[in-house]
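Per reviewer request, we include the raw input and output of the structure prediction for the construct analysed in the revised manuscript.
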Amino acid sequence: MAHPLSGADLATLTAAVQDGGGVDDRRAILAIAGAALGRAPFTLAERLISLPAPDVDGPPLFVLGHWRSGTTHLYNLLAAGGWGYVPPVAVGMPHEIFTLARLIRPLLERQLPETRYIDNIPVTPTAPQEDEIAIANMSPLSFYHGLYFPRRFDALIDRGVFLDGIDEAGVARWQATFRRFVAKIAKQQGRRLAIKNPVYTARPAMLAAMFPGAKFIHIHRDPLDVFLSMRNFYARLLEVMALQTVPEDLDVDATILRVYDRMMATLTTETAQWQAPDWVELPYTLLDQQPLEALGLIYETLALPGYDTARPGFERHLEGVKSYAKNRFAPEPALAAKLDGAWGRWFDHFGYARPGSTAIGDQSMGRSA
């Protein structure tokens, strides 16, 4: 499986390596650079393709939510119901969607892993993807650069998620890159888009300004489940994506606590006055236990047409994933106090029991995530 950064253009690759402080895995970076150089003529040619406005049949529908909150499950369902989505080939080769990617698509599809690195969700040629890896191949501002270059883990994550230290010109360049990517996906899909990316949970106001009339769904989950699953998320992705030796003193727990708190604070502040038919918020438990009711709530609240037409697709997808086995993680007893202190207000805000109120150390089966 090629490294995800293999889809970067030469300028983005150079900037990412410089910002990240170099690489330790020289073989990997030579392969990545070779891929970028070999694709360069197609990259340049595709920049000349004119694109329509990225609002086929209406502005995008954005699925927001912190990582491990159920955004993927919801996104897969929406795609099964007929929404346009970001396909794997567009993530791996965002610069050459209409040129080289079309020519070598069978080869690319054979390289896809059977499941995602972090869980048991299958990856197929038509599996909807979040766009952040694509953005990491197109812009120096990406959350994933923190995973590729862990010696600057926190600084690159804060820059990629919250745009820390980025001036107005840098933000404008990111916006132009994102608009063009959305326009390319709209052209490729030919239907109204749903876009899922946890990073955008920290940018709702920006997205609303960029795409007037866009709709937003925020899905939230018990913060304890999120925390436990995020530990696995970082461990698995750093293992396969890091181009540097992971520092021994990397404090992943502290990063999870800090980023979640700041992301939720930004989200709740920027959406405090938002309401139907542009905004809906729901718990993961509703989607997990009553998925058709959850989807009906989304369609009704956002005044989206076509639920009855989409429902057979929802049902087929649900039938296909009913045997899906979630990862299970056991929390240690000391975690209750840590989360209560750091995230107590978010347990309260979203209506979840604080971990100190339950004997989490006695849950021998752990939590599902």
